[in-house]
Amino acid sequence: MKRVLVCILLLLLLICVDCVSADTISAQIDSFDFPSGDWYRGSNQGGTNVWIKNTGDVGHLFWVSYEVMDRRGQWQRAPPEPVYAEPGDSTYFVNPVWHIPDDAELGSYQADLYLYSYYDSRTGELSEQLDQVDLAGAFSVVG
Hints:
Elements: H1 2-20, E1 27-33, E2 38-39, E3 46-47, E4 49-54, E5 60-69, E6 75-77, E7 81-85, E8 91-94, E9 97-98, E10 107-120, E11 125-141
Parallel strand pairs: 2-11
Antiparallel strand pairs: 1-4, 3-9, 4-8, 5-6, 5-7, 5-10, 10-11
């Protein structure tokens, strides 16, 4: 009985050590700068600036998604931008750009930034959202 109890305790100790040593993938949007004002169709003015902070304990390739919504509720997304970040206090800069199409809806747009852990380039799917910021009325497309 004593031997069984000792084996169980050793097994629990090994499981706990494994749990404690597991890598944590975590990050946040540290700051951002949505452009404002009037933008024009057919231009690359639709860029934004975002700073990412790795709050986990392992270096990781994160993905930033930049999406905009027109006044009719139609969403458009810039290509996802990768950013590799080591853990710690460092902040990493990303500059995703949405090319404003020639037929873009005129009027006010909402801008959203999302931070994800993973991106599947075969399917275009982003997964494990870590953070999000948005700004209604961030800019206007005027012509």
